[in-house]
């Protein structure tokens, strides 16, 4: 347990993380800064980086510790994509908009690589090895190919490669898929190490990061924000709210949670596998996911296979992890005897329009959230855009720009509705639709 009573997360990422090289510090007294950032995940840390580079005083506060939320629990896939497809963007908003969004997404991957290089975060183990999306039936395969061809021909994207069924089977060690599309520009990272390394580097540059410091109240005027926490008060000209799917944990940021539909992703990791078995699976050493509505993802790390999938927000349950294990064995029968050593889950910020939201909340606040499962890359670039917006610049936001705070109507019904939708999606997946 940490100082504020929040449980540690028993994830593989936490177990294999090296000892932190920076000191955990709580707010102890009142301070004044130019910009206060709430949330020490990728979004908040990227925002702090962008502000520090401009010579602007910034302080970061987090209710828990660096990377405690989604930034330390995700699968570590660094993807040049949004949940909404580029083809759908072009159809709904025009080709120029789709091209702008495509550029932002690929910039996200570049940003992760650049930050890891600049701060020498070797422990993040970033590899630009691609991501393979696997089709769970023939209809899904046809859709993948059509989308890849459209993206190549219309957006001049030469980073996509179609794999036939034999190629996918040979690479992943499973014959359950009908083919796939490789996104060569994607990568993988050890997610908690990335967050911690970025935080340590920022501290070395003089950025204060206050952990175990929940913000209980934010008072805003036109020219100032006052953040109240147990250890003191922070006064800032601007505040950036970077809590994403964890805004509900503190009263000060709870209304931002109403911009999203609450989903959760869970993951399991096997014991360390015998080298021959380990080497026979997922030979591309990249991230993998599949096309079911209730998507599963998988990858390798630390001599193990990791397997994850999305569920509905609620209490973590043994049933959920047992279902993941069944799906793992269904996909990889070779792992039927493999012991599961780690189980964990985390929240995912899903928005109605399947896109992140970045915008102003009054004169003194900026918010940035809702990555819909592609947060490693998108938060790293959009956090910097949030910083620019907070100080009066006009970054390229395209469809991610929110002109006003748009909470979901009847948000209290979102979780029951999500449960119904998830059950329906699971049924459609089961019958191959």
Structure report:
The protein is α/β, with parallel strands linked by helices and 433 residues long. Among the domains are: 171 residues, FAD/NAD(P)-binding domain, CATH 3.50.50; 90 residues, D-Amino Acid Oxidase, subunit A, domain 2 (D-Amino Acid Oxidase, Chain A, domain 2). Helices cover 33% and strands 23% of the residues. It is built from eleven helices and 19 strands. Strands 1, 2, 8, 9, 10, 11, 17, 18 and 19 form a nine-stranded mixed beta sheet that branches. It has an eight-stranded mixed beta sheet with strand order 5-6-4-13-14-15-12-16, with helices on both faces. It has a two-stranded antiparallel sheet with strand order 3-7. Helix 3 packs across helix 4. The protein is globular, with a radius of gyration of 21 Å. This is FAD dependent oxidoreductase. Keywords: Oxidoreductase. InterPro entries: FAD-dep_OxRdtase, FAD/NAD-bd_sf. GO terms for molecular function: oxidoreductase activity.
From the alpha carbons, calculate the radius of gyration and give it in angstroms: 21 Å
Number of helical segments with 4 or more residues: 11
Fill in the CATH topology of the domain at 22-73 and 192-260 and 353-402.
Answer: FAD/NAD(P)-binding domain
In CATH, what is the class of the domain at 22-73 and 192-260 and 353-402? Answer: Alpha Beta
Which sequence of SSEs, written as H and E, runs from N to C?
Answer: HEHEEHHEHEHEEHEEEEEHEEEHEEEHEH
The overall strand count is 19
Domain FAD dependent oxidoreductase: 34-389
GO molecular function: oxidoreductase activity
Pfam families: DAO
GO cellular component, one term: cytoplasm
